[in-house]
Records
---
Amino acid sequence: QVQLVESGGGLVQPGGSLRLSCAASGATQRINVMVWYRQAPGSYREVVARITGGGSIFYADPEKGRFTISMDNAKNTVDLQMNNLRPEDTAIYYCYADIGAERADYWGSGTQVTVSS
């Protein structure tokens, strides 16, 4: 029923910006949490930022001050504005959603972010 569709990845120079978007299409129940993860080659998948349906926000320490997560509850979308990007930010970025009373998990297929000069 629910599909998460990510967009906005690409190639950007160090210091540049990207905005990632994730749309939870087909969601008919409450979205409890939406999260942006990333995974670089040889690394664990890690949380970048998350936001609850009630508006509570968490950022990983390296991203504080550079990244901003936001949610449009009416459209069931979540965005991640990424500024002052570094080569270390290079990774596949994944959208995750926890939806409904049963807390069903959904994952997007990922979008590649490459930061390079």
---
Amino acid sequence: QVQLVESGGGSVQAGGSLRLSCTASGYRGSCLGWFRQAPGKEREAVAGISSGGRTTFYADSVKGRFTVSYDNAKNTLLLQMSSLKPEDTAMYYCAATGFTYRCYSGSPYINWGQGTQVTVSS
């Protein structure tokens, strides 16, 4: 059974950096992704990576600022966030697909973590 646990959230000044981690115990799917949701807003996909690390996707709003990666040895999904903006403030969730042929925001994510809060102040 897949168990996802996020960590690394916190409060940071605009322009700062944070690294989010998500341990993916029992992960045997094809894609891991990060999603976020701010109060009053819909959940949106942030970034994701295929099981082999050959394919990644990013929301336009974070391209050039965020980097997603996966540490196979530690079964950990990472999201390096730089040049953070107040609009990045949200609860961040990691999610995992089962077996799928494509890794993108609309892939079937069937396992979800509980989330970690990121707050960026101006």
---
Amino acid sequence: QIQLVESGGGLVQAGGSLGLSCAASGRTFSSVAMGWFRQAPGKEREFVAAITWIGGSTKYADSVKGRFTISRDSAKNTVYLQMNTLKPEDTAIYYCAAARQYRHTYYYLQEMYDYWGQGTQVTVSS
């Protein structure tokens, strides 16, 4: 099993920045890719970004492209999400996820991911 713990959420003004971390533990060798998803109140959970452990190939949702950056530190089994130029629309609970298999076609689908963290709240005020 893989355990995921997110941290770094908080309150920030529009236009500001915030960095999130996702620490993985357990059988981390079984994970090939990591993703970030978010869910706003009354909304469906949506894809934000993904990265592969080997090669560091990245994918981003159009809504965050150019503003958010996903990265990983393999030695620390940690994935990061740097969020810049934050907007009120970015307000949501952000979840970290791990996938045992990576499919280029399915990187944005939550069904591709097998393990999930508890989430961390990000609130952007206007």
